[in-house]
Design a protein that fits this description.
The chain folds into 2 domains: about 80 residues; about 80 residues, no CATH class. The chain has about 220 residues and is mainly α. It is rod-shaped. It has 5 helices and no strands.
Length: about 220
């Protein structure tokens, strides 16, 4: 029996081609890896520079975002601390001002009452007319007049204890506005001696005392006239 076997049918043509190419490369190594040309190097350098520029732009953008975030965080902290600070300050200030307003209103009301009492006492003193007294009503009128003077003196002394301005002291607002001169501050009343206190009391009450003495002298003259 005849056979149609052909040895060429079992030969891998692709393998033979690759083998031949490998043999050719081995025989000529200079043609395997070709050195890049100047144009290729320039192109690669330009590409690298472009990539670096893009990276720099990206870095700058990230830096701007970081700065914005840090600024936002700082402002948030400032908002929180400032709000807490002002809440505390305003709450405390409202309490202090309400207390001061209440004290000032109370002092103003007390001063208004004292002012009305002063005017009433002054009107009573000015209403005394010793020339209209007669011999029969002398003692009664004199007693009444002395009582009026004593009541006015008590009102005056009581008001002096309440309001320092009646004792010659400056108001607190004026003291804060006027600069203090070293060595010129008045001595406290508690440090004054008995004689100095007597002089101070006489200086404060001498108008009433003088009026009382004049009234008594006038009454004596009228009595023995």
């Amino acid at each position: 029996m005849g056979s149609d076997f052909d040895p060429a049918d079992f030969v891998d043509n692709d393998f033979q081609s690759r083998k031949a190419a490998a043999a050719a490369v081995s025989a000529h190594p200079d043609t395997a890896v070709r050195a890049p040309s100047r144009e290729e190097v320039d192109a690669r350098v330009l590409e690298a520079q472009q990539r670096l520029a893009e990276l720099r732009r990206a870095q700058e953008e990230l830096e701007r975002e970081r700065a914005q975030l840090e600024e936002a965080r700082r402002r948030c902290i400032e908002f929180q601390t400032g709000r807490q600070e002002m809440l505390q300050n305003l709450t405390r200030g409202i309490g202090l001002l309400e207390e001061a307003e209440f004290a000032a209103r109370r002092d103003a009301e007390q001063m208004a009452r004292t002012l009305a009492d002063f005017r009433d006492a002054l009107a009573k003193l000015e209403a005394i007319n010793e020339e209209a007294w007669t011999k029969d009503t002398f003692n009664v009128e004199l007693t009444r007049a002395l009582t009026t003077i004593e009541n006015a003196r008590m009102e005056w002394n009581s008001a002096r204890l309440k309001f320092d301005v009646l004792s010659g002291a400056k108001p607190k607002a004026a003291e804060s506005a006027t600069p203090q001169t070293p060595g010129a501050a008045p001595a406290p009343i508690a440090d004054l001696g008995f004689l100095q206190l007597c002089k101070l009391g006489l200086a404060m009450t001498w108008p009433l005392t003088l009026a009382a003495i004049g009234l008594i002298v006038t009454l004596v003259i009228l009595l023995y006239r």
